[in-house]
């Protein structure tokens, strides 16, 4: 029953449905990349600079690589990095926020100062510094995005914990003699899940934008095809072949837009009182 | 001491551990970075005997325990000594200060455009809520919110510089023209249009959505009912009462977003070859000049702390409740 009404509430927002439809298409694209474009997306298949809608659906790039193959394989890269980085950020943020909100006092003070510190540091510049020091790779991209994105989650979870820990069910758990960790993870955390899910879904979109910007600047994993890398590689030929940059950008735009719309739809369905920014 | 002064002093005291934290983090990152000053110097000299490298390490205090090195580092930073860039043969601070101006110009212009138009568009959307103007503004905002900055920049170059040939593609001024006085100001303004527009779009979308939400929230408040009961005109209620209160959350987010604006500026500078801090960061990145990169990192974090203090001061001027507390 609850599941049905949740879906009904989500389906009530037209923009949420549109977002979901686009997102499903991107997922299908990512999943079908090895089927329709088997082999290496970096492989040279034809003459360079073939315009779109010729022998190759989206044309070829400056080295004669198939643009469509790049877009399809890039979809997987973006979604994977966005998802894994977000999960890592959720993990860090939830732990810090939960402990700060549950214990309060000195623990809260110290953890929140740490959060404030990470929030003050310009996050994109921090991400650049981290990737540069760790040297560009898939894992350093994910680590950098996770390290710069957890503070808002920590603040959110802390706030939820502060308001939940005075509730009766927590007092009942204390009376039952339940341990702290069990109370945090078994009792209080499940009650914050809807807020965490909404913020997390919007974070995936931000993570994809950061990943594409890092790859555009040449800080992505050199062995993995990504949309940001394609734009960075095509920008030298803006004058003669602007579509090399335009096409991957549209892919990023649509994906990020879809995730934002789904996130807002989820927000309306899960926490009708919460406003989205 | 007035409440306002106490509030500002309180914020100043709060900033101290943050600045200290930034310095410590910077120190740790510098240690994580591959190669220290001694190996870099030895490398510049085209290889050196190990005894010489050890001597260099000793001279720079790199053979001291980590915590002594940290204290030394804090002392250096507090005396504004950010180290030396061996690639550029110049003190890091001097390099950064040379590039700070263009970045501040770009950020300042962006702030003016994005806050100005964001507030205006949000206001229009809220006054025409659920009508076509509101729908159009909201759709455009949500699209701008999802667009990568660097891509917008490249597409604007394609349209306005390559196809229409209206605006310059890169740089901050036409160096070869040797403009002076107002001609130079105009030339720089001309070069500023595309980068500032690129950086503004995202923030304009953000402030539009925020302003719209804040206006709608404030419109449901009790003081609005009171004002209406007093017989004030709707125009006066909107512009004198709701608008002022709705602006406060926007101002808060302006402070919060300064760091992100700096990050965006790095990307935009890379797209438009704008000679600011971002360009410098980009160069240091590929020269593996970590001393310079972390100097920029430190100063940009410091800039965020300073701007947030300024926002707090503006806040006390706009929100009389702080005085009353």
Order of helices and strands of chain A: HHHHHHHHHHH
What topology, given as strand order, has the largest sheet of chain B?
1-2
Radius of gyration over C-alpha positions of chain B, nearest whole angstrom: 24 Å
The CATH class name of chain A reads Mainly Alpha
- Report the average pLDDT across residues of chain B: 82
Tally of individual helices of chain B: 14
Structural class of chain A: mainly alpha
Model description:
The complex is a heterodimer of chains A (277) and B (325). Chain A is built from eleven helices and no strands. Helices cover 74% and strands 0% of the residues of chain A. Chain A has a single domain (6-33, 61-274), classed as MetI-like (MetI-like fold). In chain A, helix 2 (14-36) crosses helix 11 (243-270), helix 3 (67-103) runs antiparallel to helix 4 (105-120) and helix 9 (180-216) packs antiparallel against helix 11. The radius of gyration of chain A is 22 Å and the shape is elongated. Chain A is mostly helical and 277 residues long. With 325 residues, chain B is an all-alpha fold. Chain B has helices spanning 3-32, 37-44, 50-59, 66-78, 92-127, 132-145, 149-163, 182-219, 222-229, 234-256, 258-272, 277-286, 290-318, 321-324; strands at 84-85, 90-91. In chain B, a hairpin with a 4-residue loop joins strand 1 and strand 2 (90-91). In chain B, helix 5 runs antiparallel to helix 6. The two termini of chain B are 13 Å apart. At the A-B interface, helix 4, helix 5, helix 9 and helix 11 of A face helix 1, helix 6, helix 7, helix 8 and helix 11 of B.
Entry keywords:
heterodimer, A: 277 residues, MetI-like fold, 11 helices, B: 325 residues, mainly alpha, 14 helices
Mind sketching the topology for me?
The complex is a heterodimer of chains A (277) and B (325).
Chain A: H1 2-11, H2 14-36, H3 67-103, H4 105-120, H5 123-134, H6 138-149, H7 151-164, H8 168-175, H9 180-216, H10 227-234, H11 243-270
Helix pairs in contact in A: 1-11, 2-3, 2-11, 3-4, 3-6, 3-7, 3-9, 3-11, 4-7, 5-6, 6-9, 7-9, 9-10, 9-11, 10-11
Chain B: H1 3-32, H2 37-44, H3 50-59, H4 66-78, E1 84-85, E2 90-91, H5 92-127, H6 132-145, H7 149-163, H8 182-219, H9 222-229, H10 234-256, H11 258-272, H12 277-286, H13 290-318, H14 321-324
Antiparallel strand pairs in B: 1-2
